[in-house]
Structure formats: structure tokens, C-alpha cells
Design brief:
alpha/beta, elongated, 46% helix, four-stranded antiparallel sheet, four-stranded parallel sheet
């Protein structure tokens, strides 16, 4: 039995069958670079990083495209209000996202296109939609005509008469539901040349054009947060299908992160910004917190929950550092079954903790060979989740933790050579105390 994923469009868990055998293609809606990332924005990347790693473990070659939205209404709004060029906002904010992803142990994408680098592809797509009768010009703007596409609303499961109006009903629209493919030039805004007039692309158009360029007219998985289902992904699907593309075979969405029951807002001084949270917990502890819930479940943020997750991760980490065995080649069947069942991470992590408990029991009984096997199994599972504290590609955290690991390995080797298990346990407790009392982290400026 292979991987099964929940497909938003079909409202069902389906067998994952890639378009090209042995290869999986993923398009993930990346950041809109307005302000540095908060916890809700990085959840999507961490969740899809786990999917990326699991597909690789299952033997697929993965083509992973994650875009950067570097031109959009909110970026322009901030540019105009602060009186600085839009690119002076977008570029440093992009770098802060990149540092956050790297610090949290996310694998780099195969390609990371920026919207502003793909204006010709967007113009070509608009021309196709105009020629096919699915779009129309109006005073320098170009709109997608929703009424021309009968399947509009299929992804978000909305009836045409109940569809929410998500854009301003500007003069010249034939239907309030129609959305902008191209916006005419306005004072102070960036401008590109197009056959129907100078202006800039609409947000929804950007992703369709970039997905087509790097993944083709049909690809396997389109991912993003559940908040993007409507209107963004609905509009992407409509315009791409109307232009003749099959587009995504699976639509996969992660649940939102809320705080006190409300959506986390994008603003510069956000207390839930990633760099602020990394003052309290280490990167792998924050990653563990984001992995602990099922990716489709809503996640209510609280400091207590993050600290509980950090404590749970440290229990696993201490066992791995104490034993230090190499990862095994095979994973426990229960772990693999959980991962194949729509990435059921709570179930998968329960297997990790059960194996750690068995390893501690083996250590306490003096069965070091069995403990080493359990440690190897734990490390193999953690590698899939991007949580192995001894992985060579793990993010650099602090000198304290690097030194602690080195000291622990030396102490363990000396104690083993002299047969002094008590000395090893004393050293372990001292290092545990150091780790508990000093929660330093790699900060993201």
C-alpha cells in the first residue's frame, strides 16, 4: 500500500499516483514578502518539507517549486505608505523568510521563482485567455470572466450565486465576481509594458504562469495554506484550466495557525514572528511543535504548547545523544504506515516516543546492543521528519549545543572504555541541566 493524501478538490483521501512514474512534482505557494515571517506562515513550509522528505524516502525524485510573491497589493501599499521603493521591502523580507526556512531545517526547493522575473510568461497566459474568450479588457485592465468557466467554485465547493466578492467592483467589470489578471498603471506603482497597456499582474495570475513554466501543463501536487483555497487557488485553477492546462492532480492544504482564536496578522512587530519565538526555544523544538499536530488540523498557538513540545523533543534528543548509534536503513512498519496515511504525524511521533521508551528500558537493563538498535531506528524516523539532532545537514544552532554533543560523545567513549556506567550517567545529567537552563538559538535578524 502506498502514500495516500487528502485531496481538497475531491474531498477525499486518494492514492498518490504521480504523472511521471518515479518523479513527484510539487508547487507550493511561497511567501508574499511584506513583513518577516510569523509562525503561521512557516507552518506551511515545514509541513510540505516533511512531505518532500517522505516522497524522497519513498524513492521519488522530487521537483519542488516554491514561488516568491514579490509584487502584490500589500507590498505596494507598504511601499506607498512608507515612501520607499517596493523592492527595498521585498528583498530583505525575502531573505528573512529564506533564513527562517533554513534555520528550521527545511530542504531547499528545486527552484524558487520570483513573480517579477516572469512577467513575459504572465502576459502570454493573459493573451491565451483573451483569445479563448475567458478574459476581457476594460480601460487598461484585464479581467477573467468567471461566467465563462462553468466549473468555477469546484475547488472551494461554492455555488455560483453564493460566491463571495473578493475584489473591489471596479468600473468596467462585467460581473462583480470577475477578478483581475492585469491591473492598469497607477501613480507610484511599478509598471511593466503589455499589449493592452502598462501596468502589473494580478496576484492569482502569477502562480499559474510560474507553475506552468517550471512544472509543465500538468503536475502532481499544488500545496498551500487552507486560507488560500478561495479565492487564490480557485482563481488559479479556473484560469489555468480555461487556458487549456490540466494543472494540479492533487490539491493539498495545511490547516491555519491561530492565536486566541484569531488569524495571525502580518505586521512588522509581530510577537509571533519566527525570530521572536526563537528567542524562547531552539529551532528544532519549534519545528517539532509544528510537526506534532496533523498538517490539516487547525493549530491554536500558545506559549505553553510550544514549551511542552520543546520538552517532548528534548526527551527524544537526550536519548539519541546518550546512545549516538547510526541510523538504521529501515523504518518501523507502524511509522511508515502512519506517514503513508495522509502524513499522520501524531501517530508517527507516537512510534518515535514508544521506541525511545524501549531504548531507555534497554539501557536500564544493561542491554546496550538493543539500545543502539532502538537509537538507530529513532534516528531513521527523525531523519524523515527533519528532526535528527545528529544529522549532518541539521541547522547550526549554538556553540553550547555543539560543545555539549562533543563532550557527551567523549564522556560516553571514556566510560565505555573503563566500564564506568555511573560516570557516564553523571555526565549525562550535567549536560541535560545545561541544555535545560540555556535555551539559546540561532537568531534571524
Amino acid at each position: 500500500m502506498g502514500l495516500r493524501l487528502y485531496d481538497t478538490r475531491h474531498r477525499a483521501v486518494r492514492d498518490f499516483t504521480p504523472r511521471i512514474p518515479g518523479m513527484a512534482s510539487i508547487y507550493l505557494c511561497g511567501p508574499t514578502v511584506v513583513v518577516p515571517p510569523h509562525i503561521g506562515q512557516v507552518r506551511s513550509q515545514v509541513n510540505f518539507d516533511v512531505l518532500h522528505r517522505w516522497l524522497r524516502h519513498r524513492g521519488y525524485r522530487v521537483l519542488f517549486c516554491r514561488n516568491v510573491t514579490d509584487i502584490e497589493d500589500k507590498i505596494i501599499g507598504r511601499s506607498l505608505s512608507e515612501g520607499i521603493q517596493w523592492w527595498r521591502i521585498a528583498d530583505p523580507v525575502y531573505r528573512s523568510f529564506d533564513r527562517a526556512y533554513t534555520t528550521l531545517g527545511c530542504l531547499p526547493p528545486s527552484v524558487e521563482p520570483r513573480a517579477t522575473g516572469h512577467i513575459p510568461e504572465m502576459i502570454e497566459l493573459v493573451e491565451q485567455l483573451l483569445a479563448a474568450g475567458h478574459a476581457y479588457e476594460s480601460d487598461g485592465n484585464v479581467y477573467f470572466e468567471v461566467g465563462s468557466y462553468p466549473e468555477y467554485g469546484a475547488l472551494s465547493r461554492q455555488l455560483p450565486e453564493n460566491i463571495l466578492i473578493t475584489e473591489e467592483n471596479e468600473h468596467g467589470k462585467r460581473d462583480p465576481r470577475d477578478f483581475a489578471l492585469w491591473k492598469r498603471a497607477k501613480p507610484g506603482e511599478p509598471v511593466w509594458h503589455a499589449p493592452w497597456g502598462d501596468g502589473r499582474p494580478g496576484w492569482h495570475l502569477e502562480c499559474s504562469a510560474m507553475a506552468r513554466k517550471y512544472l509543465g501543463h500538468e503536475f502532481d501536487i499544488h500545496g498551500g495554506g487552507a486560507n488560500l483555497v478561495f479565492p487564490h487557488h480557485e482563481n488559479e485553477l479556473a484560469q489555468s484550466r480555461a487556458a487549456g492546462d490540466s494543472f494540479a492532480r492533487f490539491w493539498v492544504h495545511n490547516g491555519p495557525v491561530t492565536h486566541r482564536g484569531e488569524k495571525i496578522r502580518k505586521h512588522a512587530r509581530n510577537p509571533l514572528a519566527v525570530h521572536t519565538l526563537l528567542d524562547r526555544v531552539r529551532p528544532m523544538e519549534l519545528r517539532y511543535y509544528l510537526c506534532a499536530a496533523h498538517y490539516r488540523s487547525p493549530l491554536e498557538f500558545s506559549t505553553g504548547a510550544v514549551e511542552e513540545a520543546a520538552t517532548a523533543y528534548r526527551r527524544v534528543e537526550r536519548f539519541v545523544l546518550r546512545v549516538g548509534a547510526e541510523p538504521t536503513a529501515d523504518l518501523p512498519a507502524q511509522f511508515s504506515d502512519a506517514m503513508d496515511a495522509d502524513l499522520n504525524l501524531p501517530r508517527a511521533l507516537s512510534v518515535v516516543h514508544a521506541t525511545v521508551a524501549e531504548g531507555h528500558a534497554a539501557l536500564n537493563s544493561g542491554d546496550h546492543e538493543s539500545a543502539a538498535r532502538k537509537c538507530g531506528s529513532v534516528r531513521a524516523m527523525l531523519n524523515v521528519l527533519g528532526l535528527d539532532p545528529l544529522a549532518e545537514d541539521r541547522p547550526r544552532e549554538t556553540r553550547l549545543h555543539d560543545v555539549a554533543r562533543a563532550v557527551l560523545r567523549i564522556a560516553r567513549n571514556l566510560a565505555t572504555a573503563e566500564g564506568d556506567r555511573e560516570r557516564s550517567m553523571i555526565m549525562q545529567r550535567k549536560i541535560d541541566n545545561a541544555l535545560n537552563n540555556r535555551r539559546e538559538s540561532a537568531l534571524i535578524p
